[in-house]
Amino acid sequence: MPSKLVIVMANTDPRNGEELGAPIFQASVAAAMDYEVEVICTATSGRLLRKGVAEKLFVKPGSPKSVYSFIQDAHEAGVKFFCCSPNLDLFEMTKDDLVPECAGVVGGAYLIEQVMDDDTRVLTY
Of 4, 89, 91, 123, which sits most exposed with the smallest number of CB within 10 A? Predict the structure, then answer.
């Protein structure tokens, strides 16, 4: 039975707050179930890992809890967040621009390795 879940946020657009709740929530649930969990933010969702962005986003208008709060909760539960390396260039960021909850920057080869690993399941949003 697989012991690791990789959630790839590729089509999740930070400009649409309600799209952000499910992947982060599922990551937190899986971590609470003692799975190793990684969230890889690529394409447009890479913006979420830039300092100051997720703090201004909300899953539901009027919610007192920002998307960044959900990221912090997931991180505290053991979820590791990664930024896809092309996002640094795409959004003119450096590693210093990333939130402290970001465990690092990964490339396409890392993602392919994870997808092909027999001990890993991949969920894409």
Answer: 89
